[in-house]
Amino acid sequence: MSVTAGLPAGPVAARPRATARHYVMCPPEHFAVEYSINPWMDPAAPVDAARAMRQWTELKGVYERLGHTVEVVPAEPGLPDMVFAANSATVLGGTVLGARFRAPQRAAEAEHFRRWFAARGHRELVMASRTNEAEGDFAWTGEVLLAGTGFRTDPAAHAEAQEVLGVPVVSLTLTDPRYYHLDTALFVLERGPGARIAYFPDAFSPGSRRVLRRMFPDAVLATEADASCLGLNGVSDGLNVVLPAEASGLVTRLTDLGYRPIPVDISELRKSGGGPKCCTLELH
Hints:
- InterPro entries: DDAH-like (IPR033199).
- Belongs to the DDAH family.
- The protein has 284 residues and is an alpha/beta fold.
- It has 6 helices and 15 strands.
- The strands form 5 sheets. Strands 2-1-15 form a 3-stranded mixed β-sheet, with helices on one face. The chain has a 3-stranded mixed β-sheet with strand order 3-4-5, with helices on both faces.
- Strand 6 and strand 7 (145-149) form a beta hairpin.
């Protein structure tokens, strides 16, 4: 008889689990690539606005079929990038820290979203005094706010976010202009103690890579192929992971780990450097 017979089984790793989420989105009614503020944008390349709308509508439908709440902010003429709602605010525990955009072409978006939040009774509403592109550069792990800088968000905005939101902030430096926002190179798979993230190490400075290795030893590391299609611009509810269809390697890896990847076609919106997460602001 085995000496282990009758002994209790060892610890079993917790399986990923979905939790209901509350998202805010804005339709791409006026989507176009009229200027270039990141390496993905080419005003000379054709854009199919109708296709962009279909892709956005399908993304919204995916969230709703998963049981998540989706609120929609009306689009404004003359703001073709307003579809990227993740850049509009960071919302934690009812407190709203509004955005302050670096590019003048997007500056007016902040006020439209501020009015939308104010109309819904958000009293703890603070507009950033430092350049702060919201969830484009802020990722909530459930315990700390990971904060990107290097191309858009001012490093001083990290301290401002800590003061306004009352949570610890960990600064990370981006070094590759293709990954101009944190949400193009990293996303949170599971929140809370023992949070798990996925990220592309080569998008970060050496010191930031060391910080991420120390904080998230079981992180999912993406390849260049998956990062270069904005595969890390994903949205996870803890189990279901919505990400660009082209990120096939990441899909396989996540499946092996017990997650449920949901590939979506977001190729038209990627012409502005956006993906599922860019289109999705979460109210935490």
